[in-house]
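User: Before I run my own analysis I want an independent prediction to cross-check against. Here's the chain; please return only the structure tokens and, at the end, one sentence I can use as a sanity check.
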Amino acid sequence: MTLINSFDINFLADQIEHYGTQELTDRELLFCVCCSAFSKRDATTITGKFFSQYEDLEQMQYLTDQEIRDLLPENQKNWFFEVLSEFAQRFEKRPSLALGTVYSSKKIGEYMSQMYGCAKQEHLVGIYLDTKSQVLLQKSIFKGTLNSATVHPREIFKEAVKCSAARFMVVHNHPSGNVTPSKNDLALTDRLLECGEMLGITLLDHIIVGDNSYLSMREEELIA
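Assistant: Structure tokens:
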């Protein structure tokens, strides 16, 4: 994404839709967040003040009450950065897959439903395990429309080889909320089973998640 000097929230929204939030600069990200509580003009002023004094967003956690008041126009909404800080702290405490832990398909399905069930784009995540089925790595591999043309087994197995995984699961979401496997889902599962057999890296499960539900292909006996 190209850095812009004069922020335009509509332009940024288009860029996010096409390239994702991960492509936003710290400056653009702060501007978007400030627009939720302030006018575009005030959001631009706050963003400019912050980055004229600090290098990156990490330093926001160290701001004093007075420094926060100095950033805001006419002492408006002094609670704003306090709320942001509290949100960030709680987000860091969200449930996550702990490395070295064994999880059932049910636990992973429930966790991934919280993480990706409401996403508007499809995501495919690999969960890589050792010989004792302990988690070695959780890796986001694809984002967008998932089909046989975009999801190639080599990208999934590349991560498995990197971390010396003996087994793995793949999880992806259906933005529609319907967790019924599509023909593409079943075809991908078959390809991963075949490739895994050749490489000696076993596919334990392919889990599909929706906003409040999940489907495990192993539980449904779609994977023997």
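Sanity check: Helices lie at 9-19, 26-34, 40-53, 65-71, 80-92, 105-116, 153-162, 183-199.
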